[in-house]
Amino acid sequence: MFALGVLVIIALAGFGAWWAMHPAYAPLATDLQPEASAEIGASLSQWGVPYRFEDGDKTILVPREQVYQTRMKLASDGVPRTGSVGFEAFKDSDYGVTEFAQHINYQRALQGELERTIESMIEIRSARVHLTIQHASLFDQDTQPSKASVTVALREGKTLDARQVAGIQRLLASAVEGLDASRVAVLDARGDTLSSTGDSGDAPQMDGRMAQAGKLEAAMQKQASELLARALHRTDFTVSVAVQLNYDKVKRLGNRILAQGKNGQGLLVQEKTSSSHGSGASAPGTSGGGGSSSREVEYAHGSEREEVEQAPGRIERVSVGIVVPSAVDKTTLPMLADVVSAGIGLQASRGDKVEIAMAQSVPAVLVTQPKAALEPVAKASAPVPQSHTHGALSPSFLSWLVGAAIAGALSMLLLQVVLGRRREAKRLSAPEREEVLARIRAWVEAPEQLS
Question: Does 413 score more than 70 pLDDT?
Answer without folding.
Answer: no
